[in-house]
């Protein structure tokens, strides 16, 4: 299905400064797993990554809700940093800094003594559903959007905070900021993640204090803002003891919302491009230099989130590979363990034009019984989905590709910009069926890769802060191109949108 692999070389002005002994530690945590990686940067090879430690992540039922097992998560982070320090020492290298990126919106509450007052809730918990109407009674959706430009999702941070029974004497630290605090003792809120809270002014780049007041939230509920590339602090003595890192190792703010780091590593040139950060969720959009705060944009449920270097990630959340991974989990429990490549090959052999679902329906947010829920959603459309894994997988892939196409068409309409190419980064860039279906659904060429865009964007921001890389996003992206094999998928001529071939 793919149309070959191409590797490009960065131009001579890409800006890398050779420092073979300098390495960077990237903590990259998603909703189902995390990694600690070592990153190296050079003009010749771009950004290279070495995975040092992988660990699982997931929600647990605790104290009447779905929460993150944060103590276990942070213990794995420390274990990974200790392993990274050992590897670097063995290579004669020096870890100069650590960058942290995770998913958005969730937080932990920390009291004045620096203690976590409870286990952080997961956005998959239903507690914020009941607060949406109360928030909108205090601030209308139209007013919220005109300031924040944020897509409505019932689990956005402001709805979660509205569900908290008591916020006296605590601060909310978003998950990457909470990890940074436990490493350094310093409280900061990184700006790209702050922009996902629903309490951030998209134009001013500051907290929307009028909304904090309207919702009865303390003005200091969040720590002060910090920008990507700025230093959070140095490591606490206890962290130095547990990890073996040197005392001058710093924690540097990166695009701590993982999508911000991923978009920074999109291997685009000067063309007008669209991007899809495809993983547990799919983030589909374009890069702008200013937010779009129109009523039409609000009704289309697009979001304006901060990117690296003051850019705007104008995008919409679309369902993602969570649907597939949950189906695989359900099938494995039933004893069906066909490997994913074979499963995708079987799905690709099925004819186009099959049934589809709305992949970003909130009904698919919670775990468990995903194949049954997908078949039920298909029945609600009047169609029938065969009870075969390949058929369910093809339905997911067709639905995601159609959702991508609709979202990109809306983005072009709402911004008045046309795009000539679609970049897919993240785990979904390895899914050849999804990439080809996306090319067919959008009618545009798709360039797939890098898989590790988030970690590479994380490392690039650290490298620039350390002076190993110079330049803006164009120069950073040229380094990604230098070290990445990219696959290109062309429109095959059989365009399929919403289940109808044309």
UniProtKB/TrEMBL annotation:
Q: Coiled coil located at which positions? A: none
Keywords, A to Z? ATP-binding, Disulfide bond, Kinase, Nucleotide-binding, Rhamnose metabolism, Transferase
InterPro entries found in the cross-reference section: ATPase_NBD (IPR043129), FGGY_C (IPR018485), FGGY_N (IPR018484), Rhamnulokinase (IPR013449)
Q: Which GO terms describe its molecular function?
A: rhamnulokinase activity
According to the entry, every stretch annotated as the Carbohydrate kinase FGGY C-terminal domain falls at 274-466
EC number(s) recorded for this UniProt protein = 2.7.1.5
Domain of life, per UniProt, equals Bacteria
* Residue ranges of every copy of the Carbohydrate kinase FGGY N-terminal domain listed in the record: 25-263
Q: Which family does it belong to?
A: Belongs to the FGGY kinase family.
This chain's protein is named: Rhamnulokinase
What organism is the protein native to? Answer: Arthrobacter bambusae
């Amino acid at each position: 299905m793919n149309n070959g692999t191409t590797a490009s070389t960065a131009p001579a002005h890409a800006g890398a400064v050779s420092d073979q002994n300098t390495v960077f530690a990237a903590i990259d945590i998603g909703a189902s797993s995390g990694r600690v990686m070592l990153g190296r940067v050079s003009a010749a090879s771009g950004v290279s990554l070495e995975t040092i430690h992988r660990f699982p992540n997931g929600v647990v039922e605790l104290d009447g809700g779905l929460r993150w097992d944060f103590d276990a998560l942070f213990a794995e982070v420390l274990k990974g940093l200790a392993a990274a320090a050992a590897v670097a020492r063995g290579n004669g290298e020096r870890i100069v800094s650590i960058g942290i990126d995770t998913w958005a919106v969730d937080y932990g509450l920390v009291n004045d003594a620096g203690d976590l007052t409870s286990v952080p809730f997961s956005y998959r918990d239903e507690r914020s559903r009941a607060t949406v109407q109360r928030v909108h009674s205090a601030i209308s959706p139209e007013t919220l959007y005109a300031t924040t430009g944020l897509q409505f999702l019932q689990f956005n941070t402001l709805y979660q905070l509205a569900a908290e029974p008591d916020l006296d004497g605590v601060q909310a630290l978003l998950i990457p900021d909470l990890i940074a605090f436990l490493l350094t003792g310093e409280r900061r809120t990184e700006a790209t993640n702050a922009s996902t809270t629903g309490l951030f002014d998209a134009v001013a780049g500051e907290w929307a204090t009028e909304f904090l007041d309207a919702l009865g939230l303390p003005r200091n509920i969040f720590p002060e803002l910090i920008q990507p590339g700025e230093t959070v602090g140095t490591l606490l003595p206890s962290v130095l003891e547990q990890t073996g890192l040197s005392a001058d190792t710093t924690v540097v703010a990166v695009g701590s919302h993982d999508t911000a780091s991923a978009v920074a590593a999109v291997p685009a040139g000067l063309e007008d491009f669209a991007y899809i950060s495809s993983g547990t969720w799919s983030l589909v959009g374009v890069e702008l230099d200013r937010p779009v705060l129109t009523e039409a944009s609000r009704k289309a449920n697009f979001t304006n989130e901060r990117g690296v270097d003051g850019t705007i990630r104008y995008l919409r959340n679309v369902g993602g590979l969570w649907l597939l991974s949950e189906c695989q989990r359900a099938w494995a429990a039933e004893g069906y363990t066909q490997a994913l490549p074979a499963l995708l090959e079987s799905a690709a052999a099925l004819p186009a034009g099959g049934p589809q679902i709305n992949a970003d329906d909130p009904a698919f947010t919670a775990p468990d019984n995903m194949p049954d829920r997908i078949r039920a959603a298909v029945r609600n459309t009047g169609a029938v989905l065969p009870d075969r894994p390949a058929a369910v997988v093809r339905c997911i892939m067709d639905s995601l590709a159609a959702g991508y196409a609709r979202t990109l068409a809306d983005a072009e309409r709402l911004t008045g910009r046309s795009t000539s190419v679609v970049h897919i980064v993240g785990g979904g860039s390895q899914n050849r069926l999804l990439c080809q279906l996306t090319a067919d659904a959008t009618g545009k060429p798709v360039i797939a890769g890098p898989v590790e865009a988030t970690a590479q964007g994380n490392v690039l921001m650290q490298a620039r802060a350390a002076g190993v890389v110079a330049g803006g996003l164009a120069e950073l992206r040229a380094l990604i191109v230098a070290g990445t094999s990219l696959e290109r998928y062309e429109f095959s001529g059989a365009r399929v949108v919403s289940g109808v071939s044309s």
